[in-house]
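REQUEST ID: PR-0412
SUBMITTED BY: lab tech R.K.
PRIORITY: routine
TASK: structure prediction, single protein chain
INPUT:
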Amino acid sequence: MIASLTIAIALLIGFLIYYKILGDPSNFVEYNAKTGEYGEPKEGNLLGIVFKGGFIVPLLIAVNLTVFIFIIERFITLSRAKGKGNINKFVNKLKGLLDSNDTSSAIEECDKQKGSLANVVRAGLEKYETIASDSSMDKEKKVELLRGEMEEATALELPMLSKNLVIISTCASIGTLIGLIGTVLGMIRSFAAMSSGAPDTAQLATGISEALINTFLGIAASTIAIIFYNIFSTKIDQMTHSMDEASFSIIQNFSSTQK
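STATUS: complete
OUTPUT:
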């Protein structure tokens, strides 16, 4: 619901930017207030030139805004999920504490780290302490329970890590497609200007500008979305690998210490 609201707000902002900033009459040589028709952009006025890209431009602005909003959201979320300090050092310290069978200190380290990895490890260590002294179960049953607890804790953390990545990947696809629609419309206008006996140079220039502006905005949105989608996917894979490594260490330590 929050994601849908964010996209709706991005669309609203996109149209406001298009009509209030890009479409400001001061960006054009002339403007007919009665008909709402715009003249040519002032020489070198980039805002007016972008406005001439047509009604597809606010949609592309909204796509770019959506990408930037969710990039910031993912950076904040993954930074919190990473926790405090270096993950590799945290994992190595846990291994040392587990080797010395000091689960209490390991739990304290998890409380200090405060990340997704720490949450998974803490759940495993608490289960570790609960079943270690339970004489009603054999070793295999205890190991199975511990493994199940670690897997469940990991499954609870992963959705939060990958949340909203689908929006970024979708923007990577539709950015290019929406830009392509604008490009085609601009080319149609350009060919229409050349279809008469004497080509309308103003309409031809407008059509070409519309095509190029939409192409640029669409490619920009897709490129940025693809780059950061891959960056976030790599970070998530690294964190997932650390969770699996820590889970394996806990299970191995438990197996080796239990009779």
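NOTES: Strands lie at 31-32, 37-38.
REVIEWED BY: pending
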